[in-house]
Amino acid sequence: MPDNGTYERLISLLDSTATAYKLIDHEPQGTTETVSALRGHPVSEAAKCLILIVKIDRRVTRYVLAVVPGDRRVDLNAIRTLFAARYVGFCDAATAERLAHAVPGTVLPFSFDPELELVADPDVIAQPCLYFNAARLDRSLAISGADYARLAEPRVERIAGPGSN
Fold first, then answer.
1. Is beta strand 155-156 parallel, antiparallel or unpaired with respect to 116-120?
2. For the whole model, what pTM was predicted?
3. Cα angle vertex 164, ends 162, 165, to 5°?
4. Residue 111's closest CA among 13, 3, 24?
5. In angstroms, rounded to a whole number, what is the distance separating the alpha carbons of residues 159 and 66?
6. 94, 100, 106 from 79: Cα distances, Å
7. 78 pLDDT exceeds 60?
8. What's the angle, vertex CA 23, arms to CA 27 and CA 155, rounded to 5?
9. How far does CA 59 lie from the centroid of its chain?
10. Residue 3 predicted with pLDDT over 60
């Protein structure tokens, strides 16, 4: 199991702000569809977190943590338009792990790294109860979409397309 510093940082944030949350222990799993079934909720109530590389031009590269509903895909064209970028793609695993401070399948919908810009689809924030892996494959967390928005302070933009990626 990886270092649990990111998990501890999340729990500390929630506790220090008196945010209501629920921890859910389950079999180790990082796939949105499978872990949603283990947690017992529709996939649409999960936060799917994807780290993207955004090349604005030949000299400027940014990294974006895109958060969309679990039953949807991130719309790369929407991200490209949002950042006026020439290229948008999925980040390599090593860079994603470095920026998220978590292994793939456990990425939080929070950014604890100044290099990682957080963008969430409004349908994520609209969830009465939002579920995500808590920087661990064997534990998830549920909070309200409103509390998530208040704590994470994402840039809220339409970035979810139909289907799943």
1. parallel
2. 0.94
3. 120
4. 13
5. 8
6. 22, 19, 22
7. yes
8. 105
9. 27
10. no
Q: 22 with 142: CB under 8 angstroms? A: yes
- Residue 1 pLDDT > 60: no
Residue 155's contacts (CB-CB under 8 Å, 6 or more residues apart) are: 117, 118, 119, 120
The closest of 56, 54, 121, 119 to 91, measured between CA atoms, is 54
CA distances from residue 73 to 10, 93, 108, 129, 165 in whole angstroms, order as listed: 25, 18, 17, 19, 5
CA 52 to chain centre: 11
The predicted model gives 19-27 an average pLDDT of 97
Q: In the structure encoding, which two tokens stand for residue 154, read together?
A: 């994402």
d(CA 105, CA 150): 24
What span, in angstroms and rounded, lies between the C-alpha atoms of 80 and 78? 5
Mean of the pLDDT values across residues 110-132? 97
- Which tokens sit at 156? 């809220």
